[in-house]
Specification:
Layout: H1 2-31, H2 33-36, E1 38-43, E2 46-51, E3 57-62, H3 69-72, H4 77-112, H5 119-155, H6 176-184
Antiparallel strand pairs: 1-2, 2-3
Helix pairs in contact: 4-5
Amino acid sequence: MKSGLIRALIVGASCTVTLVSTAAAQRIDSTRYDGQALRYESYWGSARIIRGADGPLVGTAGWFRSFDVEKLVASSAPARAEARVYKSNSFRASVVGTIGATAAVVGVALSANNSNTASTPILIIGGLGAMAWGAQHLHVAFSALSRSLWWYNRDLARPQLAPLPTPVPVPARETEQGKRNKDAQ
């Protein structure tokens, strides 16, 4: 009976120590540059913003996504400026791209129903043009997002590294051929 109680106490204490040490390691990692830096991974027209090398998902940006990048990178002024560029271009690209896709689909549907009016090619061409304009602005928006995250990461505090040691000169070793060439001169 007493040995079961002792085993339970030992297991409980080891679990507590493991949890405390894991939490402390996560706390230390989250204050380091590696735990605070932001990156994004693009995926089918959207971008997942992730903190750290394999940290938590902070947000998702893309078509009609209302993620506030400006608030996320608020500690860096240049990053905030790029986040504003991202926000305006992303919204424009979403609206115009959606309108263009709708116009192109309506034009194709009208032409499929044999209603050969002058509006069908105009809708199709105008819709495809609007989609291309929206895609170009979405590209500008994601470029601004990338620059915003770069500025944010650049302005993060990094740990001070020890200065590099001064190089020690190493004497050159002459080979036998080098000695003969020197003597021949």
